[in-house]
Amino acid sequence: MNILIFGPNGSGKGTQGAIIKEKRSIAHIESGVIFRENISRQTVLGKQAKDYIDKGELVPDQITIPMILDRLKQDDCKNGWLLDGFPRNVAQSKALYLALKKESMKLDCVAEIILDREVAKKRIMGRRLCVNDNNHPNNIYIEAIKPNTKDGEMVCRICGGKLTKRDDDQDEEAINKRHGIYYDKDKGTLAASNFFKDKIGEGVKIIELDGSLWVEEVSQNFLNSMEE
Predict the structure, then answer these.
(1) CATH number at residue 204
(2) Is 0.85 surpassed by the pTM of this model?
(3) Which of 10, 100, 130, 147 is a plausible cystine mate for 105, CB 3.0–4.6 Å?
(4) Coil, helix or strand for 107?
(5) CA distances, 174 to each of 36, 65, 124, 166, 171 (Å)
């Protein structure tokens, strides 16, 4: 199954991608990784992309989409893929959709994790990292994984270790900017997602997931919807 996944920062989109990769044995493809790999390998497209990035400009779709298509044709995608992080606007949705059709690559499913904007921001700003294991989930705004308190200090709810914060998780201005792009229904990422809702008649399954649920519930709903 070939899937596009949408969701705001803080919705757990990357986590769900990793779970679906494991459960369904399909490749989880992150657009940012594609850029970094092409640039580090100094491919022709990677060099062209770097020229734009070095100038602080957006990489045009005529470079981005061929890089993505090349990645989707690799051996680990033979059983299917889940593309995360692209497209981000309607023009990119149209260009990707047409490119997939031209390559006879079927798009089976578009999944959108729905989460209130304020909740998404709190999830990001509430994350706390355990110094013993970053995979120990702690978040001051999520009741189920709130840190414990010891001697007046917050500590990891799993191991009691010291907790730290990532600087970028506390940059409210940057978070608001990213979310402003995502939640824009006219020109932003939500508009890109909505483009595909007109493609149901062409066999594209649309899955809307309640991102306010706990991780396991979201992934189970995702898997169940894929089977329907």
Answers:
(1) 3.40.50.300
(2) yes
(3) 100
(4) coil
(5) 22, 26, 11, 13, 5
Is residue 28 within 8 Å of 13, Cβ to Cβ? Answer: no
Between the alpha carbon of residue 125 and those of residues 120, 129, 173, the distances in Å are 9, 12, 11
In a domain, 77, yes or no: yes
> What tens-digit pLDDT sequence spans the chain (228 residues)?
999 999 999 999 989 999 999 999 999 999 989 999 999 999 999 999 999 999 988 899 999 999 999 999 999 999 999 999 999 999 999 999 999 999 999 999 999 999 999 999 999 999 999 999 988 999 999 988 999 999 999 999 999 999 999 999 999 999 999 999 999 999 999 999 999 988 887 889 999 999 999 889 999 999 999 988
Q: Is 110 inside any structural domain?
A: yes
Tell me the residue range of the domain where 91 lies: 2-115+173-227
Count how many Cα atoms sit within 13 Å of the Cα of residue 196 in the half-sphere of its side chain: 31
Instruction: Answer whether residue 96 is part of any domain.
Output: yes
| Helix H or strand E encompassing 215 | helix 215-227
Positive or negative, the CA dihedral 140, 134, 183, 205 is: negative
Is residue 30 situated within a structural domain?
Answer: yes
CA angle in degrees (0–180, nearest 5) for 19-22-160 = 55
Decide: 121 and 152 in contact? Cβ < 8 Å: no
Domain count of the chain?
1
